[in-house]
Amino acid sequence: MKEVTRWYSDRIKQEVTVVRWGHFGVPVLLFPTAGGDAEEIERFHLVRVIQPLIDAGRVKIYSVDSVAGRTILEGNNSRHCAWMLNQYQNFIRFEMVPAIRMDCKDPEMEVIVAGASIGAFNSLAILARFPDVFRAAICMSGTYDMDRFLPGETSEDYYYSSPLHFLPNLAGETLDRLRKRFVLLASGEGRAENIGESWRVARLLGEKGVPNRVDSWGAEWHHDWPTWRNMMPKYLEELVPATQPAG
User: Fold this and answer.
1) In angstroms, rounded to a whole number, what is the distance separating the alpha carbons of residues 162 and 185?
2) Contact assessment for residue 93 and residue 161, using Cβ atoms and an 8 Å cutoff
3) What is the rounded CA–CA span in Å between residue 87 and residue 157?
4) HSE-up of 211 (CA within 13 Å, CB side)?
5) CA distance 165 to 15
6) What is the rounded distance in angstroms from the CA atom of residue 54 to the CA atom of residue 52?
7) Contact at 8 Å (CB) between 141 and 188?
8) Is pTM, for the whole model, over 0.90?
């Protein structure tokens, strides 16, 4: 079952497309890569490889346009890109999550986030920033250091949207909740992969007492969709047991 919806968001000042696959199960918000739209994961057959989990009612998959990633790729100035990163994350928390919970008919449903490349950055940032509503992050072939895209940016928007910046100072209730969550950092070591970014994040999370794991898939796995099509079903099988109740 596939459903496509669109709405205008005042937070990001544009219309956004949201797609859902499935009718029952644990909600998984799967981010596109940097410039992708909400249906990118279907075109590149990521939905196909997790279809057995969808058909079994174990997961419902949601995806949404990569609005902030597109803004960066379009070459906008770094201050505007940082603003959009912050706004996009707030859009996810305060518009997407309520929509997912309404669709699941559960006002307290927790969401798994996942994605590859910039989608992994989004997954890590969203979980670390809002651990009250997200339960785990599957981060594949992550690109986490946004300084190379936004050189010299120092705004508050950037600080609060970049986990490499805000995590070292995280404390209080948000950190307490984050310590009850889980971050899975998977990466190949082949073409265009940089597993060092995953290890950097793992060390930072470990220093804050946040459960995490780095999985190296080795040199034969590259920064590309075949890698992610192999990773995604494996990790959903791990995080969503067949007997788990869902909405």
Assistant:
1) 16
2) no
3) 8
4) 11
5) 29
6) 5
7) yes
8) yes
Show the tokens assigned to 11.
Answer: 């937070």
In this predicted model, what pLDDT tens digit does every residue of 82-134 receive, in sequence order? 999 999 999 999 999 999 999 999 999 999 999 999 999 999 999 999 999 99
User: What are the chain's domains?
Assistant: 2-239 (3.40.50.1820)
Main-chain phi, psi angles of 27, to 5 degrees:
-75, 130
Whether the CB-CB separation of 71 and 81 falls below 8 Å is answered with: yes
Question: What are the tokens at 53?
Answer: 């989990």
Say if CB 120 and CB 142 are below 8 A apart. Answer: yes
Q: How far apart are CA 200 and CA 183, in angstroms?
A: 13
The CA distances from residue 61 to 1, 56, 144, 166, 238, in Å, are: 10, 13, 23, 28, 16
Q: In which residue are the tokens 């100072």 written?
A: 169
Q: Are 95 and 11 in contact (CB under 8 A)?
A: yes
**Strand, coil or helix: what is 197?**
helix
